[in-house]
Description:
Blueprint: H1 3-17, H2 27-41, H3 48-57, H4 72-83, H5 88-100, H6 115-126, H7 130-143, H8 161-166, H9 171-177, H10 189-213
Helix pairs in contact: 1-3, 2-3, 2-6, 3-5, 3-6, 4-5, 6-10, 7-9
Amino acid sequence: MNKQQIISNTVAFVKDTLKNAEGGHDWFxxxxxWNNAKLIAKNENVDEFIVELGALLHDIADSKFYNGDETxxxxxxRTFLENENVxxxxxxxxxxxxxxxxxxxxxxxxxxxxxxxxVVQDADRLDAIGAVGIARCFNYGGFKNRLLxxxxxxxxxxxxxxxxxxxxxxxxxxxxxxxxxxxxxMNTKTGKKIAENRHVYMETFLQQFxxxxxxxx
Length: 217
């Protein structure tokens, strides 16, 4: 099994599959998560091949773009990896990473865990916060035609998985329902360190946003 060739083939597969994807969940999102994952993995006792495959394939078919169907992504990953003659144990591990990486409102029971999942999950969550996270948040809000902000619609914390998936709340609410909560949900030491800085950046942005919204200097 030529691992480097498989990684190269995976990159080509993901690029092609996501060539028309929404801007916050496109190849460049995958690339950033892949780079984050490799950075974090350097300080963790993990199988880096599984980490790279998990990072590259984690959003191959994000359920929010497939009517909430969470089975398509793992199936697509399995089919691709089987065609690459990857060992079944590795394929199963990657499937589990894809099935368990998502935030889903933060109130669901994660049915699988591994050091590799923790690395990929941190890498993905880092791309949801900080400057890029803010850009992605508003890009997706525009994609869904959501309001920027409405002071009369309060954020809803402790949502169920279904409430989170079906929410149509203003984009600013998403900061309180997910983004500002991610810092304390990081798994790895490296992930936690990076998240601290990005969290502060989001808090600063929100204060500036409210000042401008309210006409303050």
